[in-house]
Design goal:
The complex is a heterodimer of chains A (302) and B (201). Chain A is an alpha/beta fold and 302 residues long. Chain A folds into two domains: 50 residues, no CATH class; 225 residues, Rossmann fold, CATH 3.40.50. The longest helix of chain A is centred in the N-terminal third of the chain and has 21 residues. In chain B, 89% of the residues lie in helices and 0% in strands. In chain B, α1 packs antiparallel against α4. The mean pLDDT of chain B is 94. Classes of the chains: A alpha/beta (302), B mainly alpha (201).
Chain lengths: 302, 201
């Protein structure tokens, strides 16, 4: 089983190189490859972007990309959508980011809020290394990285009474879900870390059967939330502990943040229309728990 | 018929061990995560438990081997799984507070929860070989057959649990089902073992 996974990963790598090689307009160069405990990491440059990708199963998924000419600008729509959390809490002081990738999100937050403290949890030490070497990620007294499982960190932090006013959950990609990070019990543990006016932003799934299960699970723990969704592409869930602010208040924050967000390459005119509280999922979908969490099957089968 | 039960018990105990091993990763994940060393801890404990079980099962087969005793092994193994349903949560929380390193946390948790049932299930195979072999000439043949049946059972337990059971049932429901089937098979073999002995006399 392990051997076939590795074989698939190699095949995928080869196939992706081959497809790049046959399209003359995009020259792709591999900058760095690294085998970690969990995956194969490839850093490559193409069409003026540098990307970190994981090869897993039979696909290559891009985790992080940066414009070579302007590394501060966000390439991915999902990272822009995650910043919607700032419309609910425009002045975060204590931030937790679960899942590092190239470190684009925490670095942007650190630039925008020099007095904020940012904790990051990343399970894979190789990802931390690659982020530092190739994506300008830079741990400092302000930005601290914890190399461990997100669930373990959150549980420990809860027991020691740690609190955050902004938590960003970015541990999933379209290919693989750590199933213990998408259960009701985990979300309750996350909830316990939030300050009374704290905000949670979760990067999750926009398609497949999992969309419905994930929605009912978040709702069971947090009640209502802003659902930012680009169908078949990205979905961000935004939660505020002391209740969702009305859209007017969200808009006021958006206006105040316009200058700060400009270097990232977007503004309220793009982000605000995505804010929705409409329920577009099956309310009867089974809530995911530590006892029942076949997230990967739900994501691929249906 | 006697042999059929021996093979059924061996195959089912293979199924049971792998189903529980797969679920054990799930059971530990909320406290110790899903990292490679959590699986390392789990697999180490299962392998150690099986090795000790083989040793003990072989020893135990020296004295008055019988189908009833084999059936009682399966029943004992099933009973040893019951604490996993009722004690896992408090035990894991207790260990979480005491062991910071998830490697040793998962190792200790897996040892406390899964060593006993796995070791007992491991006793089944060598004991079953003893029941099947009459002449040393045939020992290799029967040992091979038995490995085949029990490892085939393990494969079935692995694929059914990971592909299908987790999609429809909660972990505790799957464990209860495994315990139920084990008890049923064990009791049937006990009854049949008694009946078989009586008719022989």
């Amino acid at each position: 089983m392990r051997r076939s996974n590795r074989f698939n990963a190699l095949l995928a790598l080869f196939a992706s190189f081959a497809s790049f090689a046959t399209s003359p307009s995009t020259a792709m160069t591999v900058v760095h490859t690294e085998k970690s405990l969990y995956r194969n990491i490839v850093v490559y440059e193409e069409s003026g972007e540098r990307c970190m990708s994981f090869t897993r199963r039979n696909q290559t998924t891009r985790q992080t990309c940066q414009f070579l000419s302007d590394p501060n600008q966000f390439v991915f729509t999902y990272t822009r959508m995650m910043m919607g959390a700032l419309y609910l809490n425009p002045h975060p002081r204590k931030v937790l980011v679960i899942g590092l990738g190239g470190g684009v999100l925490p670095m942007a937050l650190a630039r925008m809020f020099p007095d904020a403290r940012i904790d990051i949890v990343e399970i894979d030490p190789a990802v931390v290394k690659v982020a530092q070497q190739f994506f300008g990620f830079n741990p400092s007294p302000q930005i601290q990285v914890f190399e461990e499982d997100g669930r373990v960190f959150v549980k420990r932090a809860g027991k020691s009474g740690r609190q955050y006013d902004l938590i960003m959950l970015d541990a999933f990609d379209h290919e693989y879900i750590p199933e213990h990070l998408l259960t009701q019990e985990f979300l309750f543990e996350v909830k316990a870390l939030l300050t009374p006016d704290g905000v949670l932003a979760a990067n999750t799934f926009s398609s497949s059967r999992l969309y419905h299960h994930e929605s009912t699970t978040y709702q069971a723990v947090f009640g209502s939330f802003y659902n930012l969704r680009i169908a078949l592409k990205n979905r961000i869930i935004l939660i505020k502990m002391d209740g969702l602010p009305p859209l007017d208040a969200v808009k006021a924050n958006a206006v105040a943040l316009e200058e700060k967000l400009k270097p990232l390459g977007f503004g309220g005119d793009w982000l605000l229309p995505l804010f929705s509280t409409e329920r577009d999922w099956d309310a009867k979908a089974r809530v995911l728990t530590d006892q029942y969490s076949p997230s990967n099957l739900l994501n691929t089968l249906f | 018929m006697h042999r059929l039960f021996v093979f059924l018990i061996a195959g089912w105990s293979g199924f049971l061990v792998m189903a529980i091993e797969l679920l054990s990763g799930r059971i530990l994940a909320p406290n110790f995560g899903n990292s490679i060393y959590v699986w390392g801890g789990v697999i180490t404990v299962f392998m150690l438990a099986l090795s000790v079980g083989y040793l003990l099962g072989g020893r135990w087969s020296l004295r008055d081997p019988s189908l009833r005793r084999l059936a009682s092994l399966l029943i004992a193994g099933a009973v040893a799984v019951i604490p996993v349903i009722f004690l896992a949560d408090p035990l894991l929380d207790w260990l979480f507070d005491r062991i910071r390193d998830p490697r040793y946390g998962s190792l200790a948790s897996a040892a406390l929860l899964f060593f006993a049932p796995t070791a007992i299930a491991g006793m089944v195979s060598p004991y079953a070989v003893r029941l099947l072999v009459n002449e040393s000439r045939h020992s290799g043949h029967f040992a091979g057959l038995l490995y085949f049946v029990s490892t085939f059972g393990s494969a079935a337990g692995t694929i059914l649990t990971s592909f299908y059971l987790v999609l429809y049932f909660e972990i505790d429901q799957i464990l209860a089902g495994l315990i139920g089937v084990s008890l049923l098979l064990g009791l049937l073999a006990l009854v049949f073992g008694n009946f078989g002995n009586a008719s022989k006399q």
